[in-house]
Specification:
This protein is an alpha+beta fold and 265 residues long. It has a single domain, classed as Sandwich (Jelly Rolls), CATH 2.60.120. The chain contains five helices and 13 strands. The strands form two sheets. A nine-stranded antiparallel beta sheet has the order 1-11-8-13-6-5-4-3-2. A four-stranded antiparallel beta sheet has the order 7-12-9-10, with no helix packed on it. Strand 3 and strand 4 form a beta hairpin. The termini are far apart.
């Protein structure tokens, strides 16, 4: 399960590695069931008033806390669909067990150049049929920098595809090699100040990652990526586990200092 030399070369050159058919169909189906059960539970608690009140951050997008998870509601005003939950693995044992799965931890040791890894954060990304919205060009690095500026560059994602990813249902698009250029210039006209400036991105060099359910995409904090809206009648769900060298604190235990983003380009 460790990296082959060719995989190592691809990852460090391009900034991502896609392994297909890592999880068997029956495993994927169990994770899909877990995802839907978790979403239903969190939404029920939020609507019952057991979480925080809904609030908005710069950019006017809607958020809410419930069951120690941050809900990001779909961007369309009035939508009742969930776009993202973070963190999410604590909400279901089937998710929590993935942190120790050697299909994820063994290659992570090679990506990070360490002998042991531990969790940083986890996310459930949802693009519901006909409603799942886009996510513009960004790096994960700025979001993690405001939590752990010393170590934000030492975090790698494992994105588990719970559905087939295609061009029409919101496949991820990446910019190969962008991780080697450091923090990308931010879009200063964008309210959140976390997104990348599209004026500095050559979209023609991007690659759409079309992959079957059960595949895993590994990519580091500095890789530029985006996703398109889901214009199809099919789901596009993905579970992301973000790893770091062992012995470090999880994201949710670290202070959120959004003002630190202004230290970046």
């Amino acid at each position: 399960m460790r990296l082959r030399e060719t995989e190592r070369s691809v990852f460090f050159r391009d900034g991502y590695l896609l392994r297909r058919d890592v999880f068997r169909p029956e495993e994927v189906e169990k994770l899909r069931s877990a995802a839907e059960e978790v979403v239903a539970s969190v939404v029920e608690r939020a609507r019952a008033g057991e979480g925080s009140q809904e609030f908005r951050l710069p950019g006017d997008h809607r958020f809410q806390f419930a069951q120690q998870s941050l809900i990001q509601w779909e961007w369309r005003e009035g939508s009742s669909e969930v776009r993202l939950l973070e963190p999410v693995t604590h909400l279901d044992a089937r998710f929590e067990a993935l942190w120790e799965d050697p299909r994820l931890t063994e290659p992570m040791k090679d990506f990070l150049g360490v002998t042991g890894v531990c969790p940083f954060t986890s996310k459930l990304n949802l693009k519901r049929p006909r409603e799942g919205s886009e996510y513009p060009w960004h790096q994960d690095y700025p979001y993690w920098y405001v939590r752990t500026p010393e170590h934000a560059h030492e975090i790698v994602n494992a994105m588990i595809f719970l559905d087939d990813a295609a061009l029409d249902n919101g496949a991820l698009r990446v910019l190969p090699g962008s991780h080697r250029k450091g923090p990308a210039p931010r879009d200063r006209s964008e309210p959140s100040q976390f997104l990348a400036d599209p004026a500095h991105i050559d979209e023609t060099q991007s690659v759409a990652l079309v992959a079957p359910a059960g595949s895993v995409l590994f990519f580091p904090a500095l890789l530029l990526h985006r996703s398109s809206p889901n214009t199809s009648e099919r789901q596009r769900r993905a579970l992301l586990l973000s790893y770091q060298p062992e012995g470090r604190a999880r994201q949710e235990t670290l202070p959120w200092r959004p003002e630190l983003v202004h230290e970046l380009p």
